[in-house]
Amino acid sequence: MDTQQETPRIVAGVDGSPSSQAALGWAVRYAGLVGGKVEAVTAWEVPGEASWSAPAVDATFDEEDAERRPVEEVRTVLGEDGASLVHERLVHGHPVEVLVDAAKGADMLVVGSRGRGGFRRALLGSVSQQVALHASCPVTIVRPIEADR
C-alpha cells in the first residue's frame, strides 16, 4: 500500500487584474497551509482571433511580451521569494477552456471574481462563472482587497 500522498496542486488563474492578484495571493497562502504547490496559469489569445467582430490580427499584440507578463505579475504580487514557490504557465486559448483543462487533477482552482474585461458592476466575471460550473475540482473565487464599487 502506498502511504505517500501527492503534494496538493493549486491552480491560480492570472490575468493582471486586481482580482487575479488577490487570487494568486490567496492561492499561495492556501498552498502554504496544506503543503501544496501553486501553478499560475495565464491564457492568451490574439485579440480578435475568436470573434468575427474584430480583425484576426492585432498589430499591437506582442507574443514575447505576453510570455513575460505572468512571470512579472507573480513577482510583483509575491516578491522574489514568494515567486520561487510558483510555477508560471502561459497557454494559448480561451481562458475558460485553459483554466478548466489546467485544473484537471488539481486539488483547487483559484480565480479572481472579475478579470480585465466585462462589466465593472458585475459581481462575477464570465470566466469565474464558467470555471465554477465546469471545473472538475473545487473552485475558489476571490474578490480584490479593495473591491471596485
Keywords:
149 residues, alpha/beta, Rossmann fold, five-stranded parallel β-sheet, 4 helices, 5 strands, globular
Low-confidence stretches: 51-58, 118-123
Kindly name the structural category: alpha/beta
- Head-to-tail CA distance between termini: 53 Å
CATH architecture type: 3-Layer(aba) Sandwich
CATH classification, class level: Alpha Beta
Count of helical stretches: 4
Q: What is the molecular shape?
A: globular
- For the report, how would you describe the main beta sheet? 5 strands, parallel
* Count of beta strands: 5
Overall tally of domains: 1
Strand content: 15-25%
Rg over C-alpha atoms, rounded to the nearest angstrom: 16 Å
CATH homologous superfamily - what is it? HUPs
Series of H and E elements: EHEHEHEHE
The overall pLDDT average reads 79
Strand order of the largest sheet: 3-2-1-4-5
Kindly state the percentage of residues in helix: 25-40%
| CATH level 3 topology | Rossmann fold
